[in-house]
Amino acid sequence: MNGLKDRVLAFLSEYTQLDETVNEDSQLIADLGLSSLSLMEIVNDAEDVFSITISDEELTGLVTVGDVISLLEKKGVQ
Amino acid sequence: MNKKTYAKRDIPESYLMLNTYRELIEYRLKKAPDVPVFRTKNHTTGEEICVLPEEFSAQVDGLSAWLAGKGYRRTHIAILGENSYHWVLLMFGVICSDNVLVTVDKGLEYKTMQSIVGRSDSRVLFYSREYEEKAKQLKEQYGLEVYPLSEVVSYADEGREMGHSAAISTDPDAMAILMYTSGTTGPSKGVMLSQRNAMNNLCVSANHTYLYGDSNFLLPLNHIYGLVPALLVPFYHGCTNTINLNLRYMLDDIREARPELLILVPLFLETMYNSIWKGLRAKGIESQIKALIDKNNAEGVSDEAKREMFKDILASFGGRLTRIVSGGAPLNIRLYEGFKDFGIEVINGYGITETSPVLGINRMELNKPESVGMLVAGEEVKIDNPDENGDGEICARSTSVMLGYYKDEARTAEALRDGWFYTGDKGFLDEDDYIHINGRIKNLIILANGENVSPEELEGMLYENEAVMEVLVYEKDGKITAEILPDEDYLKRNSIEDGEAYIRKFISDLNRELAVYKRIGTVVFRDTPFERTSSKKIKRKYN
Asked: Which CATH architecture has domain A2-74?
């Protein structure tokens, strides 16, 4: 779990500045300052980086860092 | 700089002015009959739609006949769905059949959607598949007749078989579009626009926005900026407009459509600009390109030469892009300069739903990116009640000014006085008739994606939690910020030890319910009451 969390945070840090307060409850748009458009770009890139596909419905459900981790876990990413 | 308080620009006789959407179709048919009007590509299924003017015209006629056959006339027809060719076809069909198009923002929370459908007196609703559940609930509540948006082409075919198309006369001055926009107080306001409002604005904007190549449509259709200039300027000019179906594939669409001009909000510019530099970083050539840009700027290299020099980088936008019109929200000058470094001219403009929307746009021959542009032809602008610096409320008068707010005489009377629309924006006019904005009279947050958010609406939601004693919502560093004074007595009475965590949790839950653009990004706590005005209202930051 921690390994995956670290991977997700490292991945997200490519798009926005993360500080030490970021945790699984941090919201992607509200707390991390990502825009709705950059979120789409991130999801597209995540498909390549983690070799998965993410549907539009799944994208809509991504609100927090924890949601991203759960989705990746569900898709078998470790 | 000499500041002025009044300017008027006449419409040159050479401008062709249209009055109705049907006239626009006829004009387009003659202007470029062999150039497709719209194109879409579904990047998941690979399905493509490409429609020539004649086919489009026939489909609009067919759909109009089908709607008339259903007995709809002056009926308020709501639309709920993401951008698609079907959306555009329905819009033309509704307006050309003498009905009223009610646009519903698909990103809104359900409660607000309900309110809009109810207050707009919608009788019919077209929905896309993704919103089927919501459409069913709305049908139940308001007794609506509902139809899937995906079927409009079939309905148009049925209508064509009925054979009495194109005979429906419409009044260009009657309400044709009903669009809801955030107010500073109370619920959103229904802006009533006529065909003449929209066509007048389109014709003058199109004459100020020269377009030679294709375009790419990326903005939401439920906003006036998308619905009139971004969608219809390319239509008017005889170009093909590729409608993006899903913003995840925005760059794919741009690459394939190879637009010469894009009409966007600043958030898109930011995303495109960041994607350039992300690509350069990934290739490890960021510093070399920066050095080249510095050299170009020192030597005064032309835009054309820059585009040639950076053609590999610009290939990600199709390779033909020369200009981007930016509107809907303030443009950060950094973006203007950033695109200029690659030979792309950003043209800043200004518009408001109530003015259909364009009021000002920069011109290629004199681009002042720090302004929101020269007023468009046919527009009259005055600066009301200027202060000692010459800044006052920007007011506009023209054929594009709305009919009023639907069933809201009080707010109509407040906004429209002697034909002048009071924008709520503060600024001045310069000696060349360019509008400059430097503040707001009314309290409204305008985000980079062009969405308007009413602080009072969010404050009302926060006050629903009794632990919130006082709250002020404002925008800071591009984020919606809520500054809160917790009610210590309430927290004590309810044995809540960590009041801040309790309120943060409430806001986090609230954010999940809210439309994405309304979400509260920053929470600041204070331990003293806010300063109040003489009327005992909390003093806002801009006062």
From this structure: Orthogonal Bundle (1.10)
